[in-house]
Design goal:
Helix content: 40-55%
Distance between the termini: 36 Å
Oligomer: single chain
Number of helices: 5
Strand content: under 5%
Shape: flat
């Protein structure tokens, strides 16, 4: 995707960004546990790090609320979470047998139409997970 200078400038006026290396990610995970009592996954920690960094450097003005959403369960990244905060998260009860379940998948081509058709054929009207 190519942007004109004007499009880039307009986007920069309403969006801010930050990055997190592995050390910053681990520190954000530690911050969440220490300050919020939450064990979080590394992906969520990157978002938390960005929020904290953009607040600290003034990019986001003081008093402006920031929301960071959890993107995965910490158990998905057990080793990384344990290295960062010293806690090895377990799977939630509802999926405690997840690793013992039979893997099921369907191969479809990678184009938009095939993906759309698959979702429409398999998700419409469903009231319970497969």
């Amino acid at each position: 995707m190519q942007l004109t200078n004007s499009q880039r400038d307009n986007a920069a006026a309403i969006f801010a960004s930050a990055s997190a290396n592995p050390d910053a990610t681990a520190k954000a995970m530690q911050w969440a546990q220490r300050n919020a009592g939450q064990v979080i996954d590394p992906h969520t920690a990157v978002g938390l790090h960005a929020s904290l960094a953009l607040s600290a450097d003034g990019t986001v003005p003081r008093g402006v609320p920031l929301v960071t959403l959890g993107t995965a369960h910490p158990a998905k990244f057990r080793d990384a979470v344990e290295r960062a905060v010293g806690v090895r998260p377990g799977l939630p009860t509802r999926v405690g047998d997840l690793f013992g379940r039979e893997e099921r998948f369907v191969e479809i081509s990678g184009d938009y139409e095939a993906s759309r058709d698959f979702v429409l054929e398999n998700a419409a009207g469903r009231t319970e997970p497969a």
